[in-house]
Fold each of these.
Amino acid sequence: MAETIYALSSGGLPSGVAIIRISGPDCHDVIECICPEFEFGKPIGLSGIFDPEQGNLVDKGLILTFVGPHSFTGEDIVEFHVHGGRAVVDAVLALLEKIDGLRHAEPGEFTYRAFENGKLDLTQVEGLADLIASESEAQRKLAIEAVGGRPRALLEKWLYQLVSMRSLIEAEIDFVDEEDIPGSVSDQVWSQLEIMIGELDQHLASVNTGQIIKNGFRVTLLGKPNAGKSTLLNCLAGRDVAIVTDIPGTTRDLLEVRLNLGGQVIIVTDTAGIHKTDDLIEKEGVKRAHQSAETSDMTIWLHAADDKLSMVNDATAADLLVISKADKVVLIETTKFPIDYDLAISSLNEESIEKLVNRISQAAGQSVSGSEDILFSRQRQKEGLLAAYNALCKAKNGVTEPLEVRAENMRIASDSLGKLIGRVDVEDILGRIFSEFCVGK
Ligand SMILES: Nc1nc2c(ncn2[C@@H]2O[C@H](COP(=O)(O)OP(=O)(O)OP(=O)(O)O)[C@@H](O)[C@H]2O)c(=O)[nH]1
Ligand SMILES: [Mg+2]
């Protein structure tokens, strides 16, 4: 029988209210022991919490009980909503620690029990982890769809369809010698399979957008040394994140800032100035700058307005060509700069920075357009969908192969999809998924 676990489920202390949650078979005894005025099974009520040894009142709070299996974990659950003082929470936790059969929960253990008891599938567990970690509106929307079970429902539909398709093929294999079977039963399977492959393809195509929402829209600032990249980073962050000097080559490492623009997480990376150098450290910095550019969703090349030297080739490959230090020359509106640029900015001119922020925000928004239909955003999910897609394509295209081989490929696809909801052979990935949770969830 499972042990009864407890933990503080609400956030940092002190707080107005703190929630201590208990799950497991001993909930009834816990209530009897420390809340004798309350009756387990009553959904909610105000009650004193007493130290059973001394008989004194520890705190007074709301008690909620959920009788299993109608609870988050599927087990009996009690929640104490107590005053959020550190000493109050410590005292209540100390009471629980003394009760036989109770132990403190591990990170994610409540959710693990919900999964074990079939309350949540793995896509819902992942959604929950994402919801708790969400920083932007777009991330929240994506995560709540997963918690609500849309990916699970779709995967279950596909699994159901695959089972029925496979049974039709099995039937044809079994009755292959009987002459009165009209036509080929499995013919209808291949057209159904084609539809499923199309659906998988569509969801695979949207995983990248899901990943941008989940991991953030990545913007890399590039340019020659002294172009004003670090100054721009500081302007965007609204604080002094990067060291700024007039010495070329100040920045060597990559420096990241997370912004929340237009409901999306944007990660801006400042880089070392790109130029030819024999200095080992600078060389490494330039290499990292290029690597960051390659993995970004948007690159911005800064070219200082007072830099009369020619542009570096990389500039033209950037998504946005920005003239920086525009205050140094009378550039905005009046003179036309000798190169085609998208925007001119100056760290001394807030309005110009605002314009750049709008351009970034616009690009980020475009990168996730149509995101309402995105159900999958994790690498694990992408790999599972892709494995299923490949196996189904093999099954469909293997027209010269025996039916048994084609049916086997469909089974492989089922297994890949089953892994995504946690139905088959997932011991190895459980640890990774549940390690994302904090204690109390
Ligand atoms: N007048 C003016 N000076 C600026 C502006 N932006 C940056 N600077 C100055 O230009 C110099 C270089 O700025 P940084 O932000 O360190 O340039 P960087 O591109 O990060 O340089 P590295 O890290 O060496 O590659 C500093 O002295 C800044 O104060 C601007 O918009 N206007
Ligand atoms: Mg710099």
Amino acid sequence: MTRRDFLGGLAAASSASAATRPNVLFISVDDMNDWVGCLGGYPGIHTPNIDRLAKRGVLFSDAHCAAPLCNPSRTALLTGQAPWRTGIYGNDTYWKPNLPDAVTLPMHFRANGYHVAGAGKVFHHVAGFNPPDQWDDFQLQVFDDPWYRRDEWYPWNKKIPAPKGHPFNGLDKFQGEFDWGVIPGRAESEYGDMRAVEYGEKFLGKSHAKPFFLAIGLWHPHIPMFAPQNYFDLYPPEKVRIPEVPSDDLADIPATGQKLAAFRRPEHERIVREGKWRDAVRAYLAAISFADKMVGQVISALDQSVHARNTVIVFWSDNGWHLGEKQHWHKSTLWQRSTHIPMIFAGPSTKAAGRARTQPVTLLDIYPTLIDLCGLPKRDGLDGTSLAPLLRDAGRQWKPAVSTFEPGNHAVISEKWRYIRYRDGGEELYDRKADRHEYTNLASDSKLAPVKQEMARWLPKSSAPPKPDRDEWDFDFASYQFRRRTSR
Ligand SMILES: [Ca+2]
């Protein structure tokens, strides 16, 4: 297939009737940063399946989340609306009762003649975030650590006693979910994400009367970083490289940045103190490679199916991950480590398109792009921009990307610069070409004032106040009803 075929495909899709529209295979991973072969974040990482997908499709090599945290990132992607518009900024804010009129990505496909199904973590994984009315069929997340999950948050979860030897990372009374290692006696096929993979394989193995939108949401490499031994064996401990963290890296960062970096500082300090840094990095590498294996398994099920030639694949991660950079673990910062993510569009007709797009884009762009690729009716009020022009023309000029963490804190990301402005006025400016690790904050360099001014043009002009948190609602899982608590 040539690129012209792909463009022809695009044109055909927009005039297609529902019956001939392409299917969508929507595959996500959780907390996967740019430590992926095709993104070069960790040379030596073993991600053959994602790399192969990037080669046969279009890798967006400078893609960023709309918010560097699970729920706000996923809510933004799936509603098509940015956090600064919806007020959904945190993991404790239900989107459904707060945005009762939102037409999500699966709903839009469903309303336009698609069979819409999914499994695993697509919306945020806690009860109340994945309403059953979104799907014709959905299989909820199966957790690798069911012994850790609080009953009221995961009512479908079958709790089992913690296995002997837990926690496997050897850190007693560490943050409960932040464990890593090999679950003793558990075969690869018995890990929780494999239930989502299996769901995908079964679904793709069947013929379907309508075009489909199939979402397979993998938990990996999110903590707990559990994987079978052979994925750890890919990374001999003595060869694992821990991130370089200059001791004065935080010295030029304003107060809010300091605060975000300090949020999980006790975890960082304990990991370093107990000599576990290399171990934890190794576990992340193993968890990424295990995720890659599962992504490959789903794609191979598609390739072997009757749907192989008529299915658009989109692959994405909801946010990045720190492994000690800026003395921080997890996400929830506005630096490259938290916002940069893998994102790939592929499909049989993108084969010859092959070349990475280096323009900054965001997960918000997926919704309007899929509308274009599948010829669905356009929707007003989407904050992203269709990437179809970039799929047509790799050299096209593009605007900067914006990522938001909590009200009023944004990163504006152009090909050359990252400009961060916090609600309190604190600023950071990094030269992304010269300073890949964002060690040197140039915001106070008066010669760069015009750069800051240009970047600031892209800042959202307003920020919706945060919507009420989960504890403001009574939620009933069986009926999936929300009732606002009377104000106290
Ligand atoms: Ca996440």
